[in-house]
Design brief:
Elements lengths: L1 H18 L13 H32 L8 E7 L2 E22 L5 E6 L6 E2 L4 E6 L1 H29 L5 H26 L2 E3 L4 E6 L6 E2 L6 E16 L11 E6 L4 E10 L9 E7 L2 H4 L7 E18 L4 E2 L5 E8 L5 E14 L2 E6 L6 E5 L9 E9 L7
Parallel strand pairs: 1-19
Antiparallel strand pairs: 1-18, 2-9, 2-13, 3-5, 3-8, 4-7, 5-6, 7-9, 9-12, 10-11, 10-13, 11-12, 13-17, 14-15, 15-16, 16-17, 16-19
Helix pairs in contact: 1-2, 3-4
Length: about 400
């Protein structure tokens, strides 16, 4: 093998010497067109022969000295294929109780007993607080005394009337007075019953607004109660989404704080658009299996399908690089000389993107092998060694 290498080097030296002889001075270009063409063919033939000899020498040296062989950059590629692409918009949302109610008095009075605290679970109709309605109690005591007297007068007038003693008017007046006082007592009993404040719904006491000893008034709540058995996601959607969201359509809900997500149908779409921010409400009921994990007022995101492309070239955003002038490019594997595979720089134009996926509108074709790993630091024409090849995902659908 050593003798062969020496012979090849000798032949190359003789060839270079012949090319540089005065008789064959390649620097002199003839004037005649045909002579120029003939000279070009001759030079190309010589260059081809020279390249072949150089390649033979490189291969021969590489057999004995592996470090002399060209170093190939190890990369991974992905075959470009058409796929569907869905672009989603994230709507800001909050977790809310499906039902919320305030428990407050119907009569003014001082709170003498508060039976619940924040976080307590209550049932519908459960006693929440008791008020001391002194004025009503005083009125009832006075009416009870008047009722006793009215009853005595009525009974006497009734006995006299049965004995044909006295006038009918006296009897009727006594009867009417007694019945009127009885009705007044019943009315006061109803008012006294309102001194107790009951839970209007079953749920959890979210907030206590007043404590024992404070004076409560009608219209001012003592506690607020939320029904935690059912939760809902409420999102504000821009008005341009009116045609894109429909009741029953499945959407994905993300709760970043808990790193939780689930899919559920839209259950309600608001009938009005807010005049201030031009949005409308979208509601999604939380599945029963997720209710215990969520808390009211947690922030959430609702993914709504904004656009859909059924036949697109979609690649990862990670393989796209950008020049100083803003032009975007990527590298593809392409055939090079001497059977090598090289990295080829390809300029691309991008379209819609979602998460880490982007649509390529020009620059790539189906079947191209984009370099997905090892592309950083490559230059166009650099020899590469492909370690693995995959196929681009079918779609990014949810």
């Amino acid at each position: 093998m050593k003798n062969i290498i020496i012979q090849l080097i000798s032949l190359l030296f003789l060839f270079l010497s012949a090319c540089s002889s005065p008789e064959a001075d390649s620097t002199v270009i003839p004037e005649d067109l045909q002579e120029k063409k003939a000279m070009l063919r001759e030079v190309r033939s010589e260059a081809k022969d020279l390249n072949e000899r150089i390649k033979m020498l490189e291969d021969a040296i590489a057999e004995q000295d592996p470090d002399f062989a060209p170093k190939l950059t190890l990369v991974a590629t992905e075959v470009v294929a058409k796929s569907s692409f869905n672009n989603y918009a994230n709507l800001q949302a909050t977790v809310q109780a499906d039902e919320t109610a305030m428990a407050g008095p119907e009569l003014p009075g001082r709170i003498i007993s508060l039976r619940v605290d924040e976080g307590d679970n209550v049932r519908r109709g459960q006693l929440i607080a008791t008020l001391n309605v002194e004025s009503v109690s005083v009125q009832k005591a006075e009416l009870e005394t008047a009722a006793s007297l009215a009853k005595t007068v009525f009974e006497r007038q009734q006995r006299l009337w049965e004995q044909n003693i006295g006038s009918e008017i006296q009897y009727l007046e006594a009867k009417n007075n007694y019945e009127r006082i009885q009705q007044s007592l019943k009315s006061l009993d109803v008012q006294l019953a309102k001194a107790n404040v009951y839970a209007p719904i079953s749920g959890t006491v979210q907030q206590v607004f007043m404590r024992a000893g404070e004076n409560a008034m009608p219209g001012a709540p003592i506690v607020s109660i939320i029904s935690t058995g059912k939760l809902k996601i409420v999102a504000d959607a821009p008005e341009e989404f009116l045609t894109k969201v429909k009741r029953g359509v499945q959407v994905k809900v993300n709760v970043p704080t808990l790193d939780e997500s689930f899919t559920a149908p839209i259950t309600r779409i608001g009938k009005t658009v807010d005049a201030a921010n031009r949005t409308f409400e979208v509601e999604i009921n939380v599945p029963s299996g997720k209710t215990n994990q969520l808390k009211t007022n947690l922030l959430a995101e609702v993914e709504v399908l904004e656009s859909e492309i059924t036949d697109a070239i979609v690649i990862s955003q990670d393989v796209i690089q950008q020049e100083v002038n803003g032009q975007r490019y990527t590298f593809v594997a392409a055939p090079g000389e001497d059977g090598l595979t090289i990295a080829k720089k390809v300029y691309v134009e991008t379209g819609d993107r979602y998460e880490n996926q982007v649509v390529i509108t020009s620059g790539l074709s189906v079947g191209d092998r984009i370099i997905t790993t090892g592309s950083r630091g490559l230059v166009s024409g650099q020899p590469i060694d492909i370690n693995a090849t995959t196929t681009s995902p079918a779609d990014n659908g949810k």
